[in-house]
């Protein structure tokens, strides 16, 4: 352990570059992961709030509630509530608040009767929305169905891009960080080549030579991972405080990476250091058979 610490500071600049490289890889990958986890959590919260609105044609009295009952009986529907034109206008007035007087000049109520539909949560929730909307639109008496189709398509397109980007960054940065760590260890090995040869001549085992390098690389990987996560945490809390996004009572609320993800990322960064060291030592200390 003492030899590993001494060697680390003897080649501080090279090891510092390795730490910074791993930290940058961890920071970039973790930032995308943080976005995806928060987006996924918000989407699951929105499941309980999402509504499909079926706007009805002018129907005879009593037909609207009957149509609502038919929709309620469909597979995957949790609730289907009939909203009359009068109730819809009342809701609209409440949303307008102080500006509700603008509606007093309307010659008649412009809103149609509607059915507010909520889906049962569960697997395939988002895929079931378009299919249910299509089935509802085919019912006699339904004029139009609205569920934010374009908004959903754009949201999932953005999430798909971010998932692919995070996956691509993981594939790109992991070997890059391993390669840089391996080169750092290789440079240190060449700088100490004469010392290592003397150690071999006096009978030092490969394990005795390797162990300080492995400990040094494990520390480098762990330090890089910790530095990257610390940078992400600082940026996250600054962003939340500065933008005023951390809200309560049903407002938007972002959360940092959970402990299990932090542990996985730190473990991955330590493995980067170990694997880079393993590659260099295997090449440098390979003895002829």
Describe this protein's structure.
The longest helix is centred in the middle third of the chain and has 43 residues. This protein has 289 residues and is α+β, with helices and mostly antiparallel strands. It folds into two domains: 176 residues, no CATH class; 96 residues, Alpha-Beta Plaits. A four-stranded antiparallel β-sheet has the order 2-3-1-4. Helices cover 68% and strands 8% of the residues. It has nine helices and four strands; from the N terminus they run ααβαβαβαβαααα.
Notable characteristics:
4 strands, single chain, Alpha-Beta Plaits, alpha+beta
Tally of strands: 4
- Secondary structure class reads alpha+beta
Major β-sheet strand ordering: 2-3-1-4
The rounded distance between the terminal residues' Cα atoms is: 31 Å
Which percent bin holds the helix content? 55-70%
Shape: elongated
Number of domains: 2
Question: Which ranges are low-confidence, i.e. pLDDT below 50, for 5 or more consecutive residues?
Answer: 246-250
Order of helices and strands: HHEHEHEHEHHHH
User: How many alpha or pi helices?
Assistant: 9
Mean pLDDT: 81
The radius of gyration over CA amounts to 31 Å
Estimate the strand proportion.
5-15%
Largest sheet: 4 strands, antiparallel
């Amino acid at each position: 352990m003492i030899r590993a610490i001494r060697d680390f500071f003897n080649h501080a600049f090279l090891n510092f570059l390795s730490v910074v490289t791993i930290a940058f890889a961890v920071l970039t990958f973790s930032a995308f992961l943080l976005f995806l986890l928060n987006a996924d959590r918000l989407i699951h919260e929105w499941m309980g709030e999402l509504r499909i609105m079926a706007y009805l044609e002018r129907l005879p009295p009593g037909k609207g509630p009957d149509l609502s009952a038919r929709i309620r009986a469909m597979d995957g529907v949790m609730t289907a509530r009939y909203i009359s034109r009068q109730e819809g206008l009342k809701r609209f007035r409440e949303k307008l608040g102080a500006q509700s007087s603008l509606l007093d000049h309307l010659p008649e109520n412009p809103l149609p009767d509607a059915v507010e539909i909520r889906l049962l949560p569960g697997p395939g929730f988002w895929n079931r929305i378009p299919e249910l909307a299509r089935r509802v639109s085919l019912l006699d008496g339904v004029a139009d169905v609205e569920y934010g189709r374009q908004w959903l398509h754009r949201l999932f397109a953005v999430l798909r891009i971010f998932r692919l980007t995070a996956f691509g960054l993981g594939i790109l940065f992991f070997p890059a960080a391993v390669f840089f760590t391996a080169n750092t260890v290789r440079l240190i090995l060449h700088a100490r080549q004469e010392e290592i040869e003397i150690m071999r001549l006096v009978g030092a085992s490969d394990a005795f030579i390797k162990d300080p390098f492995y400990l040094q690389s494990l520390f480098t990987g762990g330090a890089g991972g910790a530095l990257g996560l610390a940078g992400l945490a600082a940026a996250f809390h600054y962003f939340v405080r500065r933008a005023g996004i951390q809200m309560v009572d049903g407002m938007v609320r972002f959360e940092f990476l959970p402990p299990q993800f932090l542990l996985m990322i730190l473990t991955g960064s330590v493995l980067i250091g170990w694997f880079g060291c393993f590659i260099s030592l295997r090449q440098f200390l390979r003895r002829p058979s």
